[in-house]
Known about the structure:
This protein is an alpha+beta fold. It has three helices and five strands. The strands form two sheets. The protein has a three-stranded antiparallel sheet, with no helix packed on it.
Amino acid sequence: MPRRKRRRWVFLDPPEILESGEVEISLDEMEALRLADVEGLNQHDAARIMGISQPTFHRILREARRKAGMIVIHGFKPKITGGEHIMRMFRCLDCGNEWEEPFGTGRPNNCPKCNSQNFCRMDSGKGMGRGGGRGRGKGMGRRW
Ligand SMILES: [Zn+2]
């Protein structure tokens, strides 16, 4: 059986699509997309925030946009997988130890150095909105 030739103008069966109809998108791709397209940062700043080189950021972002396009256009569901690049920074408030944990591993229980539970997250990458302020009323009966 000859290998089926792939048509150039149709995007067929890309490997990331799982049988469940989900597209695997990694946390670093999500973060690249968020920084560049949601927050509107330039690639230089976004790469610095993620602690990676700009070419690496560019590569991740390009892949992320392709997957985002597949999600929007084809209606696939994103399946978020671990990121290779994003780390969370923690600092122990008792001994001053700083350490990193990869995303997706949950909050650490204690400082790896002194076992204190008195530590905090150092990076502030999340930028979650405060909620509220969304929507501008019903649009009817505008008042002056
Ligand atoms: Zn400590």
